[in-house]
Structure formats: structure tokens, C-alpha cells
Amino acid sequence: MKLAKIDSEVLNSALLGLTFMFLYSAFYTLSNLEKLILHSVRRDDPEYGGDGFVSLSILYISFALFMWVVPPLMSVTGQKYSLCLGAIGFSLFLASFLPEQAWLLYLGSACNGIGAAIIWTCQGVYVILNSTAATVTRNTAIFSGLCHSSMLYGNLFVYFCFEGKTSIDRPTRLLVVWVLLGLTVAAVFIALLLPPPVYAPERSIPKYGALQAIRKSWAVATTKHMLILCPMFFYCGLQISYLSGIFGAAVGFTTYADGFSSNQLVAATGFFTGIGEVLAEIFLVLMNPFLVRRPWMRSAVVFLGMISDFVAFLLSYLMYSNNSIFGPTNETTIITSRSWLAILIALLLGFSDGIFMPMLISVVGKIYPSATASALTIYTFCFSLASAVSFFYSAYLGLHTQLSVLVGQGITGAVAFAYVNHCISNE
């Protein structure tokens, strides 16, 4: 019976990861390319007013605001059908690129943000209800490995689509969007196959109305450990905005000394970000026995991820100009821009991102086992709010200023995580 439960834990975590893999094959690929795609739309139609950073800012602010009503929604519909509803929001975002109208793009961005709020809260609860204290890191890593491998497939497809193209014409744009839209529709059907969580009968989650859920989330948010963890939550939001949109803009608007196509390099860096994510999850699965026996090692793993990020930020500062995120540029950089360095940066960013979420979920699950949904609501709210703010100021602040903000917030977040992990490891 125990072995059967372990097998069910792995199967359920893998099936959830497969759902997210299809969803984020579409989303991460498009968000990485969004600034470039909309620049090409504006070249064809100078009156087009859509902006990639504004779109992503709307997406993440919708994500942050809708988080507060997800727990009561999940109480009514359950994790499976909530996931399906959230996945439909992703499909609407992809579909909003087809008419090439700015107002539809922004409306689709809001729908995607609402959908993301639903699926990420459901994901955290579903993983924890399929895990024990000894298996939560492993199961989270299985889910995350599949989810983050999504950056491989969509970007590989786009790489070959862009081969030989100096600009992204309308037929190419539509082909990319239609294929990615099909992936989100497939994710809806995969979500329908999710079985009930293994430990749901043993850990029933109380059902709350909207106001009760907000009050409970606020009660969790004002606890000591949650307040201290907030800087790390905010850092993760800033980091994902850099990884999934800002860095791609810098890559795509820069000319490379080795002659590599900047359009194709955006897809290539997205692909290698996915490689970094998968390597991180493999690393965490191998480290899981040590993390169970020595919980203090979670802090060491987070510091390793932070070092990976800081090296990537330093290389970005040296290789890209301050204005490289706003449009095509030939400005002088500190070191010569080369494609292999861009790929190395992507690999480092992917590795660190693959580390942070499993570590945070394992700590939050240990601190708040009976208030998982509320705790994850706080985490996701801080994460998405930081991403929204980051994409908003990306329309105004240069790359180098943003990198300085990332480093400062990263140091604060890592220290905060280490303190909380030290406290709970000694309890």
C-alpha cells in the first residue's frame, strides 16, 4: 500500500507537470518573443500601439489581484476543474495575437493573468496533497522539471521557423501563434485526466468564502516567517520577468560579432534556459535525500542559485547596452556581444530559476501545512506583483539600472530565506 501511494505521488506529480509543460511551452515561448513580435507588427502597421512590456505588466497585475479569490473558487470547483479554467485563460492570451489589435492583446493579457493565478495556486496545493514531508522536494522537482522543460520545445520550433529570416513577417507570426495556441488547448484536455490527490481524504482543505479566504490569507501574511520570506518572493518575481521577457528583448535587439541571427538567438536562449531549468530539477532530485536529512542545506542550494544569477547579471551588464531592451541598437558595449555568451547567460538563469520555486514551496509547506492555499496565495501575490512592477518600469528604466535592482533584491532575499530556513530547521 505504501509503495502504491509513492507510485501515485510520482504519477500525479508527473501528470500535473505535463499539463504545465504544454501550457508553458506556449506561454514562455511567446513572452520571450513578445517584444520582437510586436516590433515587427509595428513595422508592418506604424499605427499599431501594443507594447510587449505593457502587455506583460497587465498580465502579472491581473495575476496578483485575482490571487485573492482563488481559494474559494478552488473550494467550489476542485483542483482539476480550476486548472482547466485557468488553462483556458492562457488560450485566450495566445488567441489575442491573431487579430493584431492592441486592445485585444491587453484584454488577453488580463485573461492570462487570471488563468495563471488559478493554476499556480492549484498546482501548489495539488503537489502538497500528493506529498509527505519526505517526498515534497522530490515531487516538486518532478513537476518543475516537466514544467520548465517547456522552454525547450516551443523555442526549438521557433528557432527553425525563424531560420533565414531577417524580419518576422505576418505569415510566420501567425504560424507561430497558431501552433502555440494548439498546445494550450491540449493542456486543457490533459488537466481533465488528473486523478484526485493521494492524501486529500487525510488532509481535507477547509472551504472558505471569498471574505473568509482573504482574512485567512491576511492572517498568514502577517506571521513572522511569511513577512521575512517576502523579499525572496519579490526577488523571484523580478527574476522571472528578466528571464522571460526583458533578457529576450536585449538579445533580439542586439547585433552579434559572430554574425548569429538575433531573431534565432532569442529562441536559442529560450531553449537553453529550459536546459538550465531541467538540470536544476535533476540536481534537486539527486540532492533530495541530503535535504531531508539536513534541512539547513536548503539555504546552501538557494545561495548556489543566487550565485548563478549574479554571474548571469554580470555578463548581461558587460555584453548588452543600457538601451538594448527598447529597440534595435548598435551601441558600444563593455565586451563584444557574442552568441555563445548569450546562451551561457540563459543557461545560468534557467538553472537558478529551477532551484528557487521547489525550495520555497518545500519551506512554505513545512511552515503552513494546514493553510497551504493561503500561504501559496501570499507567495504568488508577491511574485506576480513584483513581475508586474518590473515589466512596468522596463518601459522606462534601462537594462543596467534593472540589473542593479535585481542584485540588491537578490542579496536581501537570500539572507531572508536562510534565516527562516534556519529557524524551522531547529524547531
User: Mean pLDDT score, rounded?
Assistant: 84
Q: Architecture of the largest domain, CATH level 2?
A: Up-down Bundle
Tell me the Rg in angstroms: 20 Å
Superfamily at the CATH H level of the largest domain?
MFS general substrate transporter like domains
The largest sheet is: none
Q: CATH topology of the largest domain, which one?
A: Growth Hormone, Chain: A
- Distance from N terminus to C terminus (CA atoms, Å) equals 31 Å
Query: Please, how many helices?
Result: 14
* Percent range for β-strand residues: under 5%
Helical proportion? over 70%
Count of strand segments:
0
Envelope shape: globular
Q: Overview of this structure, please?
A:
Its main location: membrane. It comes from Graphocephala atropunctata. Pfam families: UNC-93. The protein contains 14 helices and no strands. It is mainly alpha-helical and about 425 residues long.
